[in-house]
Amino acid sequence: MRVLATLANPHRMRVIATLLDKRAYVSELARDLGISRALLQVHLRKLEAAGLVESRLELSADGKAMKFYEVTPLAFTLTPGSIAEAAATLTAARAAGEDD
After folding, report:
1. With contact defined as beta carbons under 8 Å apart, do 19 and 71 qualify?
2. CA-CA-CA-CA torsion sign (53, 46, 18, 75)
3. pLDDT per residue over 13-69, tens digit each?
4. Which of 43, 63, 67, 85 gets the most CB atoms within 10 Å of its CB?
5. CB atoms < 10 A from the CB of 77, how many?
């Protein structure tokens, strides 16, 4: 279960928690979380790949392209089997050298 593996990182959980109240663009979100935009971009890509957030490009009044992120509506049922499946994925990722 890719979602559990993605949420295993505390920064990503904080991103989701912050986006619950409002959608935000990268610079605004980085300021709110107190992390660099580069680090935030890494986490946003992983969250988007797991289907937990979605992004949309919009033009500001001055014509600047801004990428806004928001939480994707979701609901999951955890079972012992799905937790075991997620644990196997984490173990395989670590063995392959994929660090978060």
Report:
1. yes
2. positive
3. 999 999 998 999 999 999 999 999 999 999 999 999 999 999 999 998 899 899 999
4. 43
5. 5
